[in-house]
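Morning run. Coffee first, then this:
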Amino acid sequence: MNADIPLSAQLINLFASVILLLAFAMLAQRRVLPLINFFALQGLTLCLSTLVVAFTTGQAHLYGSAALTLVLKAMLLPWILHRLVRQLQVRADVEGLINIPATMIAGIVLVMIAFNVALPISQLSSTISRGTLGIALATVMLAFLMMIIRTKAIPQVVGFLAMENGLFLAATSATYGMPMVVELGIALDVLVGVIILGVFFFQIREQFDSLDIRNLEKLKER
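And here it is:
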């Protein structure tokens, strides 16, 4: 490790790299339960990264953000998703519109684009975590790609939640996070959204006996 780089910055970059690796793992994963577990690990890593930033900078509100991330992203939401998978008897396999090698190539291209876009922006920031802005943007783009190529409802929801992880990392990288009242509002919106989607999943399953969102196209013919 470079002795000129503070240990805290090295830890932040390490956690950000793990978040990006987990984003690739979710992109390549073809089984539902491991996909949810990877999301939980990403939430835990995001919590640890936020704690390091909070300790290093003395930004007290980031401790609350880290606790909120731990409870919501690493515990509550994965538990809700696991429960939905069991109750809906979701098949273990996740279908994608393109194969894994093509997905990984597309992901690598998106990461390159993200780093090139984020580089001039990060140079304008003075935060200790500014070096992770490219990773944050890449995480958002990989999550968006996962939402596009998945045909099942639950993996698309996981992609949406992973995208929110990337946005939170970007906010921490650029400005040391958002005000706590804003984060609480977003967390509540995400939680309510997942609960509503859970009800929606049951309706899809009852109507089509499947969570393949391509079945919704049949409604156009009615």
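The chain has a mean pLDDT of 81. Good start to the day.
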